[in-house]
């Protein structure tokens, strides 16, 4: 399995963050893709297939998500930069989110 996936969990409600827009950027190529989290808070293929080595940034539209859920929040956007070293690997970048904090890690 190759490519890039993500998952967003709303830690306040303990439920998936459904309907959140996520964009992928490359420093030289600009925006590469845009997708929206599904009913499980996942985007299974932000980028399908191999992803070229380099530095990328996922931008999560947390402001619109919290506005839609009528939840006051501090972060209108969460950006996660990461490095791809192996085009044949699968990269999973999850986001654990609350209105006033977030965390991430390299998933599997």
UniProtKB/TrEMBL annotation:
CDD domains: TLP_HIUase (cd05822). It catalyses: 5-hydroxyisourate + H2O = 5-hydroxy-2-oxo-4-ureido-2,5-dihydro-1H-imidazole-5-carboxylate + H(+). Keywords: Hydrolase, Purine metabolism. GO terms for molecular function: hydroxyisourate hydrolase activity. The keyword Hydrolase applies. It comes from the Bacteria. Residues 4-107 form the Transthyretin/hydroxyisourate hydrolase domain. It holds the Pfam family Transthyretin. Its EC number is 3.5.2.17. InterPro entries: Hydroxyisourate_hydrolase, Thyroxine_BS, Transthyretin/HIU_hydrolase, Transthyretin/HIU_hydrolase_d, Transthyretin/HIU_hydrolase_sf. Belongs to the transthyretin family. 5-hydroxyisourate hydrolase subfamily. Homotetramer. Catalyzes the hydrolysis of 5-hydroxyisourate (HIU) to 2-oxo-4-hydroxy-4-carboxy-5-ureidoimidazoline (OHCU). This is 5-hydroxyisourate hydrolase. It comes from Rhodococcus navarretei.
């Amino acid at each position: 399995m190759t490519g890039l996936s993500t998952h967003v969990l709303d830690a306040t409600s303990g439920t998936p963050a459904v309907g959140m827009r996520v964009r992928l950027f490359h420093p030289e190529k600009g925006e590469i893709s845009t997708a929206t989290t599904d009913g499980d808070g996942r985007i299974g293929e932000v980028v399908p297939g191999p992803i070229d080595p380099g530095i990328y940034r996922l931008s999560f539209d947390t402001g619109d998500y919290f506005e839609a859920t009528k939840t006051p929040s501090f972060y209108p956007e969460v950006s996660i930069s990461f490095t791809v070293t192996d085009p044949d690997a699968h990269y999973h970048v999850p986001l654990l989110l609350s209105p006033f904090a977030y965390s991430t890690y390299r998933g599997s």
